[in-house]
Structures are given as structure tokens and as C-alpha cells.
Amino acid sequence: MSETDSFPEYLDVDYTAGEGEDPDDYPTIQDKIEQAIEVTREGLEQYRKPVVMWTGGKDSTLTLYFIKEVAEQFGLEVPAAVFIDHFQHFDGIHDFVDHWADEWDLEVIYARNEDVGEYVAEHGLEPGDDIPVEALSEHNQHHVRNILEYEEDTFPFLLDTYVGNHLLKTVALNGALEEYDVDGVISGVRWDEQEARADETFFSPRHDPETYPPHDRIQPILQFTERDVWEAFWHFVVPDTVEGFPDDGYVPQSDDDLPNGVVQADIPVSPKYFAGFRSLGSEVSTEKTTEEPAWLQNLEDTTERAGRAQDKEDLMQRLRDLGYM
Predict the structure, then answer these.
(1) Domains of the chain by range and CATH?
(2) Residues 143, 146, 149, 151: is their CA dihedral positive or negative?
(3) How far apart are CA 304 and CA 194, in angstroms?
């Protein structure tokens, strides 16, 4: 029996759906939205204990929008959102998530590697400071030594590194999946976002119990490009959720170019995107190259995640093999 066959028998999903496809197979925004709705509905109907990953970023917020719309239309429950608190978020991300969780009546599960967080707090560490491996719990030491096969005595307290990303994100996430007995993780990854994600399918198995608590990834917006995401925001998400925003959409040129008395705080778009960031990594390792709002930049000829140190280290595929999103 394969790992996929041994996963809960109540599931009947096609793990090959989307195989070999790319965004061009969904040529219009309506095609992309219809597919997102179909995948979201199947995910909410098939899985008994799903959660949705929410970073406060554009992709996960768009995914959350589809979940809310589908749940309302078909009488389904909106699952809890999992927010990975890796201790190095941009200023304001927590406030953004807390605000919209309250506005949308969401249950939010805050996944943290408390062991690392307590050591950082106790010793007053700043990003980049070293953490001794031997100071970690047995569980975290196992991940560092046996899973990552990391041999140094210390590792830097930095999110976008091999050890830092795994401990602060993946170990934290896996702990939450195990605690809440999650069978499906709805995430906002996209085919065009990073090369390691280009061969993902709409329902992607993660069933190896030696690596992570067995679950499936449900991925409704694989077919969206970065440009599509912003089109969906300004023509669907924002008009549907913000009172006074034009029903036919409006694309602001800056944070003070919003219509009908709407202010930035009314918009479910992180202020960081208005400030020119295209990807929300960590405060210390994500840069921007322009002051233009993210949706006005040259999205087709520049790399969305170029400012993130993790990608400069070419670690994405190894991290994903270990359970990273």
C-alpha cells in the first residue's frame, strides 16, 4: 500500500489534477476564478479538518476570499486560519491579520516554535545573532542534526536560512497540524511564483509520517500569475468587501488615491504592498527596488521573490521536501 493509499479513506480527490498545466491553460481571469472556486469547494467538502494558511500576504488573502465566498454560497464552514509567527515579521503584519480576522470573524491559530522563541526572548537576541544548537529542545535538536544534517554548533536567528526557515516555519507548522489533527492545508502557492512550485497539483499529498503529520495541500490559485492576483483584488476582492469601493473596480496609483472616502485601513491589502514590497518575507531579509505599489511594477520582467535571501541561497526545493509551503 502506498503512502497516498493509506491516507484517510473518506477522501476521493484527484492528485493529478493540474499536472503538466501552467497559467496559460486558464487564459482569462474568469477561467482562473472558476477553477479556484471548484478546487476550494472540493477542498471544503472533502476534508474533515482543513485549515487555511494565512500570512497576511496577497496570495493567502486571495485564497481566504475564495474560501469565504464558497463557504457562504454552498453552506460550508470557513476553516480556521493558521498564521505562522516566525518572530521576524514586518511591522504591522500582526495588526493587519488581527484586524481582518476580527472583521471577517475568523478563528486564527498562531503556530510558533516556542522553544526557539523563548530562547530568543530570554537572551534578548536580534536577527542574525547565533543560537547554540545544544540550547534547543530534544525535538528541535533532532530536526537540526538528524533531518537537516546540520553540523555547526550554532545557527543564526534568521528566517531566510536553511535552519532558521525549517525551525521557525516548518517545525512550527507541523506542530499545529499535529495538535489540531489537520487533514487538509489550503494554501495560496502559485505555479509562477517559484520554480520549485511549478509542478504542484491542485491536491498535493504530504503523507510521509517521517517528514510531517500526513495531510494534503489544497491549492486553489496555482493558475494565477502575480498580475492575475492583483486583478482579482482590485476587481473582485476589494469591491466585494469594502463599502464604497466601485463595483466595477478601481486600481489606485498610491495609498492616497482611493475612491469615495475609502482609506488604506479599509482595504484588505497589506500596507507593505502600497509601499512597494512585492513579497512579504521577513523584516530583515526582504528588500524592495522601487517605491511604486506592487501592482504597478513591471511584474512580467522582474522576479517577485528576488529580494528574499532564501531564494538567493537556492534552498526552496530542499525546504519544500521537508514540508515548507
Answers:
(1) 1-325 (3.40.50.620)
(2) positive
(3) 9
Reported in sequence order, the residue ranges of the chain that DSSP labels E, i.e. its strands, are 50-53, 80-84, 108-111, 130-132, 154-156, 184-186, 203-206, 215-218
Q: What is the pLDDT of residues 107-137, one digit of tens each?
A: 999 999 999 999 999 999 999 999 999 999 9
Specify the pTM: 0.92
Alpha-carbon distance 210 to 3, whole Å?
11
C-beta separation of 196 from 316 below 8 A = yes
Name 80's bridge partners: 51
User: Residue 39 has which C-alpha cell?
Assistant: 478546487
Q: Which three cell numbers stand for residue 116?
A: 526557539
**Chain segment 22-43, per-residue pLDDT in tens:** 999 999 999 999 999 999 999 9
The residues, ordered by sequence, that sit 6+ positions from 13 with a Cβ below 8 Å of its Cβ are: 42, 46, 203, 216
Please name the residue that has the C-alpha cell 524592495.
288
Cβ proximity of 272 and 90 under 8 Å? yes
- Nearest C-alpha neighbor of 17 from the set 219, 320, 187: 219
Residues 6+ apart with CB under 8 A from 270: 56, 57, 58, 90, 92, 93, 96, 280
